[in-house]
Amino acid sequence: MAKSYSAILRFGLAFIFLTLPLLSGCGGFKSVKEWAGYPSQDVEEEMVPPEAQQETVMIDGKPYVRSKNPYWLTYPEQPEYIYVEKGREFVPMQRRFIEAIARAVGQEKDKTGGKAIPPDKLQEMVKAEVDRILREQGLGGFVSKAKSEKAPVVGRAVAVVPDVKETPGGMESLNRTLASSLAEALRRQKDVTVIGSEQVGPALAKAQVAGKLTSRANIQALGDQLGVQGLVITKVIPPQGNNPGFLVLEIFDTFQGNKTQSIVEPEPAGVKADAATKFAQNNALRVAGELVNMDWFGRVDFVKEGKVYLNLGQNAGLKVGDRLRVVNPGKEVVNPTTQAVLGYTSDSQVGELKVTELLGNTGAVALSTSGGPFKAGEKVKAK
Q1: Rounded average pLDDT over 157-184
Q2: pTM for the complete prediction?
């Protein structure tokens, strides 16, 4: 019995001496945490990607911040973070639900003097908030239309234009590579038709663009000449001092000439052709989504023998039988003191049209059903 006890004691002491270095992490042995397969503290700290840290950069006098890319987990080759203009950061739907419900619950508690809200009342509040958010996001309207209404006009005609005025001479070729790569990627997206690059030069000349290409008047004039509903302006900003270079995509609605979205990506190692191509391919889906979500509209090209000829056809999703409203765009409302644009008045309707014939991919014929006479350049919207 004594021999058995001493053998157990010797085995216990040997086990302790062997495991002490393992537990302490010294003497060349791994710590128990590492031995079990868990990363060390240093590794854990490195697991947080540096791009997840909020950082602001200034481009053309405007702040851009890192934002979560909504397409990161849905589509391959999408970056996890992108740069967007401050105030346009992506807010996940889950966070919108939480914030909205928290506000509603807080307001209800204020009304009841801080008392607990009954479960059935809370459930009603949650449902009301969810319905409101879905309605504001457009998802509720999409579901109802899919069940009871015909689908709206979905196609969009767009053009990709490299901003050569704002791009240094040494970067002009790279900017054209960015524009052509994006145009090629957009052509593979559903419901988007891209105007050929050979049409951009003549349109710029006819539009008599003066000053910044991205000014509201220039965007509208260029949109009229190209006959498109959306424009994507590309820019390449070279590195300056300690600041990295940037690749920029700016998306504009040509109806009012407003910018709807900006996508920016830094290139610390220097801007190169392969980086520009990859940036365009990675963001083509996001750009296409922004373009398709713009309000659909077209233009009157000319009127002859009672027929109204439109400069958009199948490329913009038109079909024979579609009914259109002829409108004058709303006026810009500007604060006289700060000169800030507050918004736009409602469009005024001047008549209605019915599409009777499609002229290939880029034109259509319509007849007046009310109003008129109409003239070239007037805008039309889906009824």
Answers
A1: 88
A2: 0.62
